[in-house]
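Figure 3 (text version): structure tokens given as input.
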């Protein structure tokens, strides 16, 4: 009887503090909570949730983004140190290894491609002078065939957005045979306010550059040239340049690939169109209609791709907390965050370490803190809990793609993936973003939990940026696992929404994928801890439901879910 009273008392205390943390109060709790929340957590789970603190996350972020870890580059020394650090933390929390051969490490076979200075990239108009482009300033390019050398001398065809989407009645190719061609195309997708047409303002996977490369390769093209435009891409040229300089990693080749996968600066595209007797603005406008047909520019791409090819392995770090219910322990809830960033760029003057404090030492700090809370809880959830710190996200979601194809338990038995990526340490949030959660039948639980945490659910602040398709949860969704990321919204306690939007804008323009994404002592990790607690509560509930979480009927990932079960 006394034991039960102690549990009830602890639950009531922690219920009150749950509100306090949602309001951004410190560990001392809140005096304003008037009733216990209805989140379905047992007393020991509330006690474990209460131990999640901003300072625990802070110290993980400080270490993982320190110069000594050299930017946590994929396949580089700093990245390997980060993986070992995370594995050590998992072991300390009492989690069992879920990687290869009884270890915490899941080896991911990768191929590193470095485009060498001997590479040449020239646009040759039908009339006028050849445009010999300058690497990084005017173009970036990689050879996806994973060969040391490739040569391209091929006609350039403008294919609009490069999208074939029969469900929307859209086909930019119109049956054209593009084998052996180089395809000039736009990032993003046709603009729309109609949620039934490419989901309105929200970017679908058709708008992502990865889809465009994949579709062109499937159709036999030898190259793709993407036209960068800040408004369309949702990030400036500096992001393209920094993300595509130095070594870039790929999973080992399993299908068709492009000899030239490239971007060109908008100014270059304007000059190329003009030299081809065309107007880029008109081309952009024409591409926005269903009646668009591919247009040959009468120009060629002449490229001599010279690459350094390095076969290597990187690691996903995977641990599991076995479930308490023997009938459900073979099923699991998964938490993910990527630990990699861009490493060191020796050719860059000045500060050339891409520390990645916000992107994504914050997500790793949250992952580790949630893992610690689960691992040290006096009671375990019914289903198992998997924690995966994945590699090579910055290289194109490669670590999570490999994890999705080689999960520690079958994908059909994974109830949910909750992902953390770039959770800004800006103070106490009054909103939460869970874009994609509404696509699952778990959404009512998400809504109820957000209400208890006094967090308004904010629609994606920038749906046109396609964030759902740009983080690791997408790799798990592709194999059918209901997945979404948890992040703060734009409204923080003591600040206006405009302030939050300005912080986001400043970060994207000045720090995203830049060496200046560094740890600072004045960072406020209260919001990160609130997101950790929110995710802990969601994961525990998903691990306790009588049935596995599913996608909403008709969702694009429903078929993959059905196939995996």
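Below: residues designed for each position.
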């Amino acid at each position: 009887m006394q034991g039960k009273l102690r549990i009830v008392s602890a639950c009531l205390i922690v219920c009150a503090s749950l509100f306090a943390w949602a309001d951004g109060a410190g560990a001392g709790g809140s005096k304003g909570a008037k009733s216990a929340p209805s989140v379905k957590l047992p007393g020991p789970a509330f006690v474990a949730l209460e131990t999640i603190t901003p300072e625990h996350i802070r110290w993980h972020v400080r270490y993982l983004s320190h110069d000594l870890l050299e930017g946590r580059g994929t396949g580089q020394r700093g990245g390997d140190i980060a993986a070992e650090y995370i594995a050590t933390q998992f072991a300390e929390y009492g989690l069992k290894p879920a990687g290869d051969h009884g270890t915490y490490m899941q080896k991911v076979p990768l191929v590193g491609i470095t485009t060498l200075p001997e590479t040449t990239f020239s646009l040759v108009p039908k009339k006028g002078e050849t445009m010999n482009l300058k690497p990084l300033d005017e173009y970036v390019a990689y050879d996806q065939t994973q060969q040391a050398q490739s040569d391209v001398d091929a006609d350039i065809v403008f294919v609009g957005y490069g999208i074939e989407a029969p469900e929307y009645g859209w086909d930019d190719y119109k049956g054209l045979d593009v084998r052996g061609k180089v395809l000039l195309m736009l990032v993003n997708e046709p603009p729309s306010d109609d949620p039934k047409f490419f989901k309105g303002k929200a970017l679908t996977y058709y708008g992502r550059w990865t889809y465009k490369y994949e579709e062109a390769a499937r159709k036999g093209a030898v190259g793709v040239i993407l036209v960068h435009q800040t408004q369309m891409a949702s990030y400036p040229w500096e992001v393209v340049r920094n993300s595509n300089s130095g070594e870039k990693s790929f999973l080992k080749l399993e299908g068709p690939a492009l000899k030239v996968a490239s971007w060109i600066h908008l100014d270059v595209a304007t000059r190329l169109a003009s030299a081809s007797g065309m107007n880029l603005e008109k081309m952009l406008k024409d591409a926005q209609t269903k009646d668009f047909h591919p247009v040959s520019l009468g120009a060629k791409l002449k490229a001599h791709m010279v690459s350094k090819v390095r076969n290597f392995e990187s690691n996903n770090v995977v641990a599991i907390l076995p479930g308490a219910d023997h009938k459900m322990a073979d099923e699991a809830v998964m938490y993910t965050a990527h630990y990699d960033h861009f490493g060191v760029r020796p050719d860059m003057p000045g500060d050339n370490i891409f520390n990645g404090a916000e992107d994504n030492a914050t997500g790793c700090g949250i992952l580790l803190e949630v893992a610690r809370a689960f691992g040290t809880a006096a009671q375990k959830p019914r289903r198992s809990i998997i924690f995966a710190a994945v590699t090579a996200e910055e290289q194109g979601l490669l670590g999570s793609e490999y994890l999705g194809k080689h999960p520690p338990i079958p994908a059909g038995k994974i109830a949910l993936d909750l992902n953390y990526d770039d959770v800004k340490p800006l103070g106490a949030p009054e909103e939460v973003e869970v874009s994609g959660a509404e696509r699952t039948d778990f959404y009512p639980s998400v809504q109820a939990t957000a209400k208890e945490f006094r967090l308004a659910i904010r629609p994606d602040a920038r749906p046109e940026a396609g964030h759902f398709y740009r983080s690791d949860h997408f790799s798990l969704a592709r194999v059918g696992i209901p997945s979404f990321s948890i992040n703060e919204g734009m409204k923080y306690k003591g600040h206006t929404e405009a302030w939050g939007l300005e912080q986001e804008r400043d970060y994207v323009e000045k720090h995203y994928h830049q060496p200046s994404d560094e740890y600072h002592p004045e960072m406020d990790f209260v919001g990160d801890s609130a997101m950790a607690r929110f995710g802990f509560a969601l994961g525990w509930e998903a691990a306790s439901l009588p049935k596995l979480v599913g996608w909403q009927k008709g969702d694009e990932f429903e078929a993959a879910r059905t196939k995996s079960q």
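Confidence is low (pLDDT under 50) at residues 1-17, 24-38.
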